[in-house]
Amino acid sequence: MKNPNSGKVEVNDINIYYEIHGEGEPLLLIEGLGYSSWMWFSQIPAFSREYKVIVFDNRGVGNTDKPDSEYTIETMADDAAGFLKALGLDSAHVLGVSMGGFIAQELALRYPDMVRSLVLVSTSCGGEGSMPRGSNLWNTFIKLWGLMPDVLEFSNKGSVPMPLANSLGLTPKEKIRYGLSLAFTPEYLRTHTEEVDRIVDLRLANRQPYYAWKRQFMAGMNFDAADRAHLIKAPTLVITGCEDRVVPPERSMRLAEEIPNSRFITLEGTGHLLFIEKAEEFNKIILSFLQQLSKDNEPEKEEKERKKRWKRIFSFFFRHKKLTFYNSKDNDKNVTVGYNYSSTSQ
Asked: How far apart are CA 220 and CA 113, in angstroms?
């Protein structure tokens, strides 16, 4: 992997760390709860061959500022939008995983013109139906993310956190492995020990303060786009692992059903972190989706370019006129066959 263009930009009173890899149309990758930009180690090399891949650390994690104040998915979507603007970009393809999928949805809802396409990975539309506030599922979610000063459990009302004694007596490495046992399938854990070791080491090197993890966690818990997902206009791909035990595949399918004209894919033999488990297959699916969109948009792009060329030609001959172009049907093809103009002076 080549050295990236990296740095920090100030957005919404925090400094956001980012990296840019490759050239081409911008592709923004948004990570999930507790993870930072290092997690895209299997995507950056593949995607950056064709796209300008932009990764960043959400507020509260990695090298981005970690204010101890309320986080919301809306705020984090505003961060993402402000971040793109700070880079001089008016739009990008957007891919979000898990909580990053929440942020990506909110970005598409709040800033529809900034999202060229949307890829939602291992995620749902949130809300009570997505993660009921009961102790079992909350503990499952907390177990997954492991690297905390204390393992927490919640009361049946889902409102009172209580530390378990001595974090179950686990070392930091053991806690991470304990959590990853839900993020990956048993088969992957058994056959990819070196890669799992690498992830454990990366997590240890990029620890997230407990208060910041809790702020992110509560932002995800309070997100609900169930009644708004149908308003998403961007071309959308929803993809999930068929053995995801964190966000069950039926939740992702329900999300896809809510978004008009979206596509839904389940990847066999993968869990929550399917983009690591079957990275090569995952990357091919994403690139195929984006490339098909480009093909679908070619006629529209060509039409826009043709209009620009004709406008330059007419502007050369009518330099002091304001030109307005119109289209007409000619042999069932939409072509420019005329123009009119009005003087800019009285």
From this structure: 24
Alpha helices in the chain (DSSP H): 44-47, 73-86, 99-110, 135-145, 172-183, 186-191, 193-205, 210-221, 249-258, 274-277, 279-317
- The DSSP output letter for 251 is H
134 C-beta neighbours (distance < 10 Å), count: 13
pTM: 0.79
Percent of the chain residues topping a pLDDT of 90: 61
- Tell me if 87 sits within 8 A of 79, measured CB to CB: no
CA distance 200 to 183: 12
Q: Where are the domains of the chain?
A: 5-129+210-277, 302-343
Read off the pLDDT band of 79 (50, 70, 90): very high
CATH class as words, domain 5-129+210-277: alpha beta
Angle, alpha carbons 343-335-308 (nearest 5°): 50
- 17, containing H or E segment: strand 14-21
Locate 42 and state its tokens: 């299997």
Instruction: Tell me what percent of the residues of the chain surpass a pLDDT of 70.
Output: 73
**CA nearest 84: which of 52, 62, 60, 61?**
52
Coil, helix or strand for 39?
A: helix
Distance between CA atoms of 296 and 282, rounded to whole angstroms? 21
Residue 335 has pLDDT above 50, yes or no: no
pLDDT of residue 324: 47
Q: What is the pLDDT of residue 215?
A: 93
- Using CA atoms, how far apart are residues 137 and 63, in angstroms rounded to an integer? 30
User: Does residue 181 surpass a pLDDT of 60?
Assistant: yes
Exposure string over 316-331, b if 16+ CB within 10 A, otherwise e: eeeeebeeebeeeeee
Q: pLDDT averaged over the chain? A: 81
Residue length of the chain: 346
